[in-house]
Amino acid sequence: MTISRKNDHLDIVLSGRATSTVSAGFERFVFEHVALPETNMDEIELGTEFLRKHISAPLLVSSMTGGPERAEFINANLATACEELGIAFAVGSQRVAIEADGIAGLSSQLRKLAPTIPLMGNFGAAQLNLGYGYDQAMRAVEMVGADALIIHLNPLQEAVQPEGDRNWRGLLTRIEQLARALTVPLAVKEVGSGISGRLARQLVDCGVTIIDVAGAGGTSWAAVEAGRARTPMQAEIARAFIGWGQPTADAIAEVREACPDAFIIGSGGIRDGVDAAKAIRLGADLVGQAAATLEAATLSAEAVIDHFRAIIMQMKITCFCTGSSDLAALRSARLRRVDGAASQLVGPATSRSMP
């Protein structure tokens, strides 16, 4: 049943019927154009450090999933592309692989395809109330040779899914226990509704190293579950929440304010390299894309490479036209919020630490 559900999820996302009715919010911000950049675009440096490894740009292929055969093909394309580009890769949920002894396209083969890049394992927080703990976490890490582990938060999806796991009592304590025990950094991410500044602060205080806000504006898992509902009533319940969540742009800024030293990933509705640059400027250290990459990932590694090369070039042009020679300069570029008739200059994002 779990494998069938994962395949349903992929089909619905690929069909275009899974987008949130909430905007990610980046259109409310504009960079001040610098007509005389005084920099050489060919020398702009987007490289940064993540999980003690150098990456060529602050980009992450965010978690995607599916049934075994499709996941194997998709993950191989993504791993190959990320290695070629020198960017980070987070695998989809490893629950099926853990419980079925290594199936679902998640194995040491991924690390062989991507030997030098940051690679992140992943399973859901709800599993921590269903018997998962340190042993399963280390299995997820060792299965793919991961540099860090993601625990994903998807309470809305579980709530509207007929077979969802709805007992979330005590999970913050379990996350803290895992964070203190693991030998690799622990990341926590939402799946499309955002993480608040208050929760991010609690997670960081519990030992979580990386926060992926995964805000509203991209894939809506309520829309996905409405699309696979078995009855009209189930679909009606889920559809009411398609617009649920905090826009990604707002979530990034709020989490950065609450956690000045945390490592923050901004994902959820990142359309292009301009949005990615805005996410960095608002306080993200890394920018993730999932659904926007999925179609390319179902074709070939070359299609994924072409997709991200366009993103990287768009980021470089944004840096050039803001007079930013590198990411540090981009974080101080002049940015205005343009809600309504007035515009307001946004202050520079605060400093952060590297995991």
Automatic annotation (TrEMBL):
Cofactor(s) the protein requires to work: FMN; NADPH; Mg(2+)
Domain FMN-dependent dehydrogenase: 173-336
Reaction(s) catalysed (UniProt annotation): isopentenyl diphosphate = dimethylallyl diphosphate
Residues the record lists as binding Mg(2+): E158
Superkingdom of source: Bacteria
Principal subcellular localization: cytoplasm
Binding annotation for FMN: S62, S63, M64, T65, S93, N122, K189, T219, G269, I270, R271, A290, A291
Residues bound to substrate: R5, K6, S93, Q94, R95, Q157
Keywords on record: Cytoplasm, Flavoprotein, FMN, Isomerase, Isoprene biosynthesis, Magnesium, Metal-binding, NADP
Protein EC: 5.3.3.2
TM ranges: none
Localization per Swiss-Prot or TrEMBL: Cytoplasm
Group of enzyme by EC: isomerase
Family of the protein in this entry: Belongs to the IPP isomerase type 2 family.
NCBIfam families: IPP_isom_2
Assembly mode: Homooctamer. Dimer of tetramers.
Protein name, UniProt field: Isopentenyl-diphosphate delta-isomerase
Gene assigned in the entry: fni
